[in-house]
Design a protein that fits this description.
Strand order of the largest sheet: 5-4-3-2-1-9
Order of helices and strands: HEHEHEHEHEEHEHEHEHH
Number of strands: 9
CATH topology: TIM Barrel
CATH superfamily: Aldolase class I
Shape: globular
Number of helices: 10
Largest sheet: 6 strands, parallel
Distance between the termini: 22 Å
């Protein structure tokens, strides 16, 4: 595993956030850190994404930042320029992955089918995002892929909640889970930063309980 993979595995939870106002970026990141999560995926679903990444990295240089919903090389370059440590795309695009390699960056593509997983492997990837997980087969699909693609780790994202996250995390081929429930758009826009901190802490505690049971 590389550094980012290890952090994703150890944390087990990747908060996916959409920030419409850059001024909310630092309080959101701070809330996650105080709740025990030192990694964040800031989605390129608003014009504030690049600026938010820059603000978070400037204030919390040790926080690992992923740029989500990256669909073009231009977005990728903008994200990395502003401090993103890796990028996540909602789809599998060979040109985007090759561009990431040129920039010496990790690109995690979104997949839904075995064909896409095979294509990702051919491009040299060992980590993919299964999106939208809850609506495209969930844990049963990931289990089925385990024996066919033993070297691939999955980040299921989409429709995952606090109540269902451990069902995914108990699978050997799941690296971590991604989700927006920890810091939803509503919580961010309402500046409910205490709730975000509590959600992060609750998720970490639940993950730790799973590991304790497994031991």
């Amino acid at each position: 595993m590389n550094k980012i993979s290890e952090i994703l595995y150890n944390t087990s939870i990747l908060p996916v956030v959409t920030i419409d106002d850059e001024l909310n970026a630092v309080p959101v990141a701070e809330s996650l850190i105080e709740g025990g999560i030192n990694i964040i995926e800031i989605a390129f679903r608003s014009d504030a994404a690049a600026g938010s990444i820059k603000r978070v990295k400037s204030n919390f240089p040790n926080m690992i930042i992923g740029a989500g919903t990256v669909k073009t090389p231009g977005q990728m370059e903008l994200a990395l320029k502003n401090g993103a440590d890796f990028v996540v795309s909602p789809h599998l695009d060979s040109n985007l992955i090759k561009h990431a390699k040129k920039l010496n960056s990790l690109c995690i593509p979104g997949i839904q089918t075995a064909t896409e997983i095979e294509m990702a492997e051919e491009l040299g990837l060992k980590i993919v995002k299964f999106f939208p997980a809850a609506y495209a087969g969930g844990t049963n699909m990931i289990k089925a892929w385990g024996s066919v693609f033993p070297n691939v780790k999955f980040i299921p994202t989409g429709g995952i909640t606090l109540d269902t996250m451990n069902k995914y995390l108990q699978l050997d081929n799941v690296l971590c889970v991604g989700g927006s429930w920890i810091a939803s758009e509503a919580l961010i826009n309402n500046k409910s930063f205490i709730d975000i901190k509590e959600n992060a802490s609750e998720a970490i505690n639940k993950k730790n309980n799973l590991h304790t049971v497994n031991v």
